[in-house]
Amino acid sequence: MASVSDAELKTMSQEERARALGMMTEQLTSRSMFIEFKPGEEARFGYPWAPDVDFNKRTEIDADAMTTTEVNAKIRGLMREGFGTIVVKNPRGKHSLGVGILSRLNLIFEGSLGYFGTGLIDGPNVRINGRVGWSCAENMMSGTVVVEKNAGSTFGAAIRGGDLVCKGSVGSRTGIDMKGGTIIVGGDTGALSGFMMQRGRMVVCGNAGKNLGDSMYDGTIFIGGSIRSLGVDAVEAELTDLDRKWLTRKLTQYGLMPDKGVDHFTKVVAGKQLWNYDNLEPSEKKLIL
Amino acid sequence: MADGAPTKKPLDRDPYRLGNSFVFPPRVIDDIHVKAELGRYRMRGFSLFKKIPHWDDLTFLPGTLTRFVIEGYREKCDTKTVIGPRAKRPIELDIPVYVTGMSFGALSYEAKTALARGATMAGTATCSGEGGMIPDERRYSSKWFYQCIQSRYGFNPNHLVLADGCEFFIGQGCKVGLGGHLMGQKVTDQVAEMRSLPAGIDQRSPARHPDWLGPDDLALKIQEIREATDWQIPIQLKLGAARVYDDVRMAVKCDPDSIYIDGMEGGTGAGPHLATEDTGVPGMAAIRQARRAIDDLGKRGEITLIYAGGIRNGADVAKAIALGADAIALGHSVMMALNCNKDIPEANYPEEIGSEPGYCYHCHTGRCPVGVATQDPALRKRLDPDEAAERVYNFLHTLTIEAQLFARACGKTNLHSLEPEDLAALTMEASAMAGVPLAGTEHTVGIADYHHL
């Protein structure tokens, strides 16, 4: 890697980059991807081949007559040209729009998205002035996604970082397998929200459906309204001052701060009894029946 | 008794004993005793223990006078294998076998990198398995599948774009319908961090994917991955063998580039003993059904069929290809090439694990005596990755030339030209499952006229 500059990496094909970074060789001494992000080195907020974009350079795409692939290819092409703010008009509920963006970008959709909208992203700030279908922003690593209206089920499935916000209500299984980051819902959420949650925080200003936080390993869920029922191994916990401050900051940031403050929120965490099921006492083992 | 009279040998059985139960033999009784103490199902590694119709129940019908044989060592027998020919960048392998997905966590760093290096030397591919990418595995693998598994542990879109193929794990043969297992002993700080889990917990992965539920959603999910990878790389669906014909038809409708069927002979690093014994269908049945499903939908040559499960040698490879597989994935046997169950000087199996070499199935404990299925630094030192990589290469190469041996004997200049007609069954069950005639007959169990199959 030492002999290859970032500028050179940007011009390479994927295979050439992999070889230049020491992959696909039998040498034991090459740099690994982990070393590439060593904190002591020169600050990098994306992969070296990620395009340098200028947020003040703005453009628009009319997606009305375009396929998903054409829209996504157009977005990538504009990013390579340095456009840092891209407005997509007439998305018309197409699936998989804006997926796989792995660097900084202001992306605005003027309309609704279908399934898997803005999934697999790492870094962009996205605003969706409409609704989204299932699995919005699934596996998001960082950045922000703000949905102005309602969202479908599995909102933020397996996200690992960033802020994912829906100002309306969402379907079931919100934040399923969540591994980090923050999910904020202005309205209600459906059943099995936070299922097998591992890390991160989820805030629902309205009500939650049944089996909230079922089998959660860790993480924290805050519910502003009623909870139909808690799932296996999910338990209520005391709201701390730190929680109140964090809730106030986050909800204010996205314009979702309730008039009555945040004291009414219920905090739900993992009971941690399932962490080592084999070691439970006989009576505790009935937990999963 | 008078001296010199013939002595009668006493009976070695008690004539008053009525017999032994086949339903409750001592092994079953012991199992009940253990579970009555534990209050939970029993976990173990390895593959199924019971006998099922298997590759040994098939035999080749090489050329004699009715077929022209190909000269071994002199005449070419092509082994090149392409996975996902429709993709912009198909995976091209020199040999028809590759290393299947086994997670870092279940296996040690040394084992994972040795597999990658051995596979690269042999001109074939590896797969990340659950738990995300370890950079050195990617670095050492010339062709590398990135697995998208139900738990999404460690799944990172930045790593996805480095992959040569993306495999959706939907199930595995030895525990169809269940998620993965990694017991707390193996969830070290490093493994836990990669998976975003607390260290030391018993990790039972979800059995369903978080963001899709059925084939209609899966088709859209595949489209998402294609968009994220610019439609470049093959997308593969890995299914545990159960209702294979219907499952594969549904899988084909989701439009992947390859379908991977895992037979019930497949192994695991940890799973409930009963699931390993009592789920799935044997490989010979699964391949035939999968092949028929793909062919019925007119996708032969477009969607690659990969088989894994219980493959031990080149004969098994050749039989699976003859039944319809395009490529073979290996897990358990390449672990054995690494040293699994080998009596190495550093290991004391009876003291350390409570069993003899050759009988160890304790991958789930993290106490692997040969440093393969462990995260323990002291045990990991027992596996020399340089030597292990060479053994993996040797084994993969040997499998290939063994499979070539059968192909040549059956008159094929390409390993992939093997066909069901090159096989006969040694048992009625194998005949019915594999859809090939009973040896020495023209009778295929369950099929009125084999020649019109």
UniProtKB/TrEMBL annotation, chain A:
Query: Out of the domains of life, which is the source?
Result: Bacteria
Q: Which InterPro entries match?
A: Glu_synth_asu_C_sf
What is the name listed in the Swiss-Prot or TrEMBL entry for this protein?
GXGXG motif-containing protein
Matches recorded under SUPFAM superfamilies: Alpha subunit of glutamate synthase, C-terminal domain (SSF69336)
UniProtKB/TrEMBL annotation, chain B:
What SUPFAM superfamilies does this protein's entry cite?
A: FMN-linked oxidoreductases
Q: Keywords on this record?
A: Oxidoreductase
Which Pfam family is one of this chain's hits?
Glu_synthase
Query: Which interval of the chain is the signal sequence?
Result: none
For whether the record's keyword set contains Lipoprotein, the answer is no
Q: Does the keyword Oxidoreductase apply?
A: yes
* Gene3D superfamilies documented for this protein: Aldolase class I
Glutamate synthase domain residues? 86-411
Top-level taxon of origin: Bacteria
Family stated for the protein in its record: Belongs to the glutamate synthase family.
What protein does this entry describe? Glutamate synthase-related protein
**Originating organism:** Paralimibaculum aggregatum
